[in-house]
Design a protein that fits this description.
Distance between the termini: 110 Å
Number of domains: 3
Radius of gyration: 41 Å
Order of helices and strands: HHHHHHEEH
Number of helices: 7
Strand content: 5-15%
Structural class: alpha+beta
């Protein structure tokens, strides 16, 4: 590699330790053989250290942030962005967190109760087309039991 190539790499990635390993070996080899590039690396590291110590973050004035906000709000949203914004408002809107806990609890109870009922299907105790109904009533002071085949919707009064 030429010194110009090495110096470009030194400025870009080598000083920040962001150079991939497969590219670092040729740079190390060149630096061990070239005193001029070693000197350049030393100067780059000195400048980098000085900037790290003396650099002061500069924040833009509030008008810049306001201008950015207005441009974002003025930009038309795509359908996907509108749907995403709506969904985030529904899910993460201004609702207190207990609402989500209550909803989750109700859903769990519903699943615990409903799923076994649906999974079992028709069971004894649920009237089919015809059921045998045992009726007890008092007739002239005597207790009478009778069995009757009844269909759905048959009232007890019709059997007496």
């Amino acid at each position: 590699m030429k010194c110009a190539d090495i110096r470009a790499i030194l400025l870009a990635d080598f000083v920040d330790d962001e150079l991939p390993a497969h590219k670092k070996a040729p740079v190390d080899s060149h630096l061990s053989a070239c005193p001029s590039c070693r000197e350049f690396l030393s100067a780059v590291r000195a400048v980098d250290a000085e900037l790290a110590v003396s650099a002061v973050p500069v924040l833009p004035p509030p008008e810049v942030w306001e201008n950015i906000r207005q441009q974002i709000e003025a930009r038309p949203l795509s359908i996907g962005e509108k749907v995403t914004a709506w969904w985030e408002d529904v899910v993460w809107g201004s609702r207190p967190t207990f609402v989500y806990g209550s909803f989750a609890s109700a859903l769990i109870v519903l699943l615990v109760v409903a799923v076994p009922l649906v999974a079992r299907g028709p069971q004894a105790g649920i009237m089919s087309d015809k059921e045998v109904l045992s009726i007890a009533y008092v007739d002239e002071g005597a207790l009478v039991f009778s069995l009757a085949n009844v269909g759905n919707g048959t009232s007890v009064e019709n059997l007496l």
